[in-house]
């Protein structure tokens, strides 16, 4: 049987480089070409079972997300699966429903099942991956970073996206732009709100902004209740930035119940609306590149599985405001 050492010798590279290529980790294009050519010439087939038994790691990556029903996370999962599958790994999808205890259970399972690594969209700012790190299992945070761990992360520029969304509404002539954001314990909710606040302060001052801010639960019903509450104000908003797509669907329901509609009431939303029947009807959408987030997170994780020991890094993708 041909060994990895023979492949390395024929390719003129180290065995660690061969291992990184076989695990889908990042190497130079020339090194990858040499390794694959050598493996093909020698009819080399990697013994994945033996290598995983030696390292006590499975051929499985855990993907832990907060809401499997949200199309954003569905697209993100697709990006992870595409990249992992190409490298020979399977993906186990775990849904936390934004529940920290449920998330902690899945993280323990990842350790117990010797998963090769975990991609995590944290349930809140207190998410704890210390057990995985202690067992030398790589972790990549996606969509939301991990404040308590020095691990790789892939996010979008949420503050800039919130600012862009609010600016687009002011530019369209709206004057009282509210914000419906997610739970206060979630990083994306705070950053998107901060972007809105920055733009709103520039246009209207900061005196009444807290009256126009509502925290909700990133779900349809949360958006509906938040918008209904805003519309009850003595001086209600004429527009709103909504920090995710599911809450936007609920906000639209509340507008319809109040006899309002877009584009007369301005709405700027993070992520595409979840139901095709809603259409866009003049709604401004901040396009969050979900699949690209998943692909980038999987790439970082595969690098770590392949032996990359460089300092933790954060990749920030751009959210694009579509008018």
TrEMBL record:
Gene3D superfamilies attached to this UniProt entry: 3.40.50.2300, lambda repressor-like DNA-binding domains
Coiled coil: none
InterPro entries registered for this protein in UniProt: HTH_LacI (IPR000843), Lambda_DNA-bd_dom_sf (IPR010982), Peripla_BP/Lac1_sug-bd_dom (IPR001761), Peripla_BP_I (IPR028082)
Domain of life of the source: Bacteria
SUPFAM superfamilies: lambda repressor-like DNA-binding domains, Periplasmic binding protein-like I
Entry keyword tRNA-binding: no
Keyword Cell division in annotation: no
Every HTH lacI-type domain range: 2-55
One Pfam family hit: LacI
Keywords from the named record: DNA-binding, Repressor, Transcription, Transcription regulation
Protein name (database record): LacI family DNA-binding transcriptional regulator
């Amino acid at each position: 049987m041909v060994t990895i050492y023979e492949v390395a010798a024929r390719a003129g590279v180290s065995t660690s480089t061969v291992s990184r290529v076989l695990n889908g980790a990042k190497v130079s294009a020339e090194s990858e070409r040499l390794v694959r050519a050598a493996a093909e010439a020698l009819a080399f087939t990697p013994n994945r079972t033996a290598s995983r038994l030696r390292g006590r790691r499975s051929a499985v990556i855990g993907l832990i997300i907060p809401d499997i029903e949200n199309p954003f996370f569905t697209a993100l999962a697709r990006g992870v699966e595409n990249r992992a599958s190409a490298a020979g790994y399977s993906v186990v999808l775990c849904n936390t429903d934004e529940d920290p205890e449920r998330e902690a259970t899945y993280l323990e399972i990842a350790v117990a099942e010797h998963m090769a690594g975990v991609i995590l969209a944290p349930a809140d700012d207190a998410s704890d991956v210390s057990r995985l790190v202690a067992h030398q299992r790589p972790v990549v945070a996606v969509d939301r970073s991990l404040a308590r761990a020095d691990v790789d992360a892939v996010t979008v520029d949420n503050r800039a996206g919130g600012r862009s969304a609010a600016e687009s509404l002011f530019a369209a002539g709206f004057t009282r732009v509210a914000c419906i954001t997610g739970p206060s314990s979630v990083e994306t909710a705070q950053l998107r709100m901060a972007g809105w606040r920055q733009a709103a302060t520039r246009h209207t001052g900061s005196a009444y902004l807290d009256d126009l801010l509502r925290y909700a639960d990133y779900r349809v019903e949360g958006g509906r209740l938040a918008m209904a509450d805003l519309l009850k104000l003595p001086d209600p908003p004429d527009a709103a930035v909504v920090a995710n797509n599911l809450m936007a669907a609920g906000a639209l329901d509340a507008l319809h119940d109040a006899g309002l509609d877009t584009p007369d009431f301005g709405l700027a939303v993070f992520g595409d609306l979840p139901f095709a029947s809603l259409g866009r009807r003049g709604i401004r959408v901040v396009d969050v590149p979900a699949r690209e987030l998943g692909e980038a997170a999987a790439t970082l994780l595969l690098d770590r599985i392949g032996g990359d020991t460089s300092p933790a890094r954060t990749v920030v993708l751009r959210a694009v405001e579509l008018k």
